[in-house]
Design goal:
Arc Repressor Mutant, subunit A; 5-stranded parallel beta sheet; 8 helices
Length: about 230
């Protein structure tokens, strides 16, 4: 059972999420604006936040920015807007998933379960760091510490960028369908919306800079990582 904080200024949205969440055995708490959400997370014990973007007083993304200053609680963003800019901004702020309204409550429950499974995975300690290097050591991925270096400089990535990049490295030169990437990296079944994956690939390519072309787009299929070691 999870303690879920639902933040949305629409009573109907909060009610339907609460109905499905409680049916699954979870406990739901509610806020109707971003400012209240920040204070509620700061002063309470919750497992995950479901946050709308368009709200009075403080919008959802601004609330996420404030929450990330003191907490790494998993956050799923809801939005009536599906623009790529909003998704990129959200993922850069550290959200865990982005769901466009109107949405399926059942799918939202599956996404909550998936995010919680990922966040609760134990960290496995290793005696030695496992690293993979490309281009004669100019691009280095420390798989154990989850650190990427380009020309000796550390590259900052979001948690999901790291997961996606390391998964691609582990499956180097293999054609990866969008369905497989979403199921294996995001942890839930594929529902036909590959925009979340494509947005993260765009972010990852931006982070990789001149090595962006190591990620090859396979039209109509997915992606393949072709690093030159």
């Amino acid at each position: 059972m999870f303690n879920i904080l639902v933040v949305d200024d629409e009573t109907g949205i909060r009610s339907i999420i609460k109905k499905y969440a409680e049916f699954e055995g979870h406990k739901v708490f509610e806020c109707d604006d971003g400012m209240d959400a920040v204070n509620t997370v700061r002063n309470g014990q919750y497992d995950i936040v479901v946050m709308d973007i368009m709200m009075p007083d403080l919008d959802g993304l601004s609330a996420v920015r404030e929450i990330r200053k003191f907490s790494q609680i998993p956050i799923i963003v809801l939005s009536a807007r599906g623009e790529e800019y909003d998704k990129i901004n959200g993922f850069c702020l550290g959200i865990d998933d982005y769901v466009v309204k109107p949405f399926s409550p059942k799918e939202l429950m599956l996404r909550i379960e998936a995010v919680m499974r990922r966040s609760s995975k134990p960290v496995q300690e290793k005696a030695e760091h496992e690293t993979v290097s490309f281009d004669e050591g100019k691009l280095v991925a420390d798989l154990t510490a989850r650190i990427v270096y380009i020309d000796g400089e550390r590259v900052e990535m979001s948690p999901k960028e790291y997961e996606l990049f390391f998964y691609m490295i582990a499956n180097q030169n293999i054609a990866l369908t969008r369905e497989k990437l979403i199921c294996d990296v995001w942890g839930y079944d594929f529902y036909g919306d590959a925009r979340t994956l494509d947005t993260h690939v765009k972010l990852l390519r931006r982070s990789l800079g001149r090595y962006a072309d190591y990620i090859v787009t396979l039209r109509g299929i997915g992606y393949r990582f072709e690093g030159k070691q």
